[in-house]
Structures are given as C-alpha cells and as structure tokens.
Amino acid sequence: MTIGVDAGGGDRLALAVLAQYRMATTEQMHRVIAPKVRIEQTRRRLARLRTEGLLSAMAQTAAVPGSHLLVLHGTGLQWCRAAMNDAGEQPAP
Fold it and tell me: What superkingdom does the record give (predicted)?
C-alpha cells in the first residue's frame, strides 16, 4: 500500500506535531505548521492525511466552526518512525 504523504514538506511536520502532542485541534495545528497561509490550506492537508488513514478526527470543536480534534493513528506513528529512520534520526521510545 502506498501512502500519499509529502515526506519533505508540511505533511511530515503535521504528523510530527501530532506525534509529539498526541492531539490537537485543526486551529492549533494551523498555528503550528502553517500560520502564514489560509486555514483552508491546512484543513485540506489534514483532510488528506485523514483520508490516508494517518489521522483521526475525533469530534468537531464548538469553538471554531469546521475545526476537529485530531489524533495520530498507529499507521501515522509508524510512518513518522520510518521517516525518522530514513533521515537517520532516533525516534523516541
């Protein structure tokens, strides 16, 4: 199975942020990974990662319409570890 993730760009950053923080809202992810672009771009990126099965949207948040509480799937965590190994980085235990 091929996963359509941009390993050199924002997809890797989005997955790494969720791997570190365990969960975040769409708005929080936007502020961390791409604060200078429109939030719609971040939403599209996160939606694509959800479609790939790397993230889950647990629930919509009431504070920001269209924002979801996101968590990293096991597949996403495996992808992060593999990307770190490919880059010669040491993953956390």
Answer: Bacteria
Task: Tell me if the domain spanning 10-86 has CATH number 1.10.10.10.
Answer: yes
Q: What is the DSSP string of 65-82?
A: TT-EEEEE-HHHHHHHHH
Would you give per-residue pLDDT tens digits along the chain (93 residues)? 444 555 457 888 888 888 787 788 888 889 998 999 999 999 899 888 888 888 887 766 666 566 666 776 666 666 666 666 666 665 554
Q: Domain segments of the chain: what residues? A: 10-86
For residue 1, what is the enclosing H or E element?
Answer: none
Closest among 63, 48, 38, 39 to 15, alpha carbons compared: 48
**C-alpha dihedral over 14, 86, 79, 7, to 10 degrees?**
40
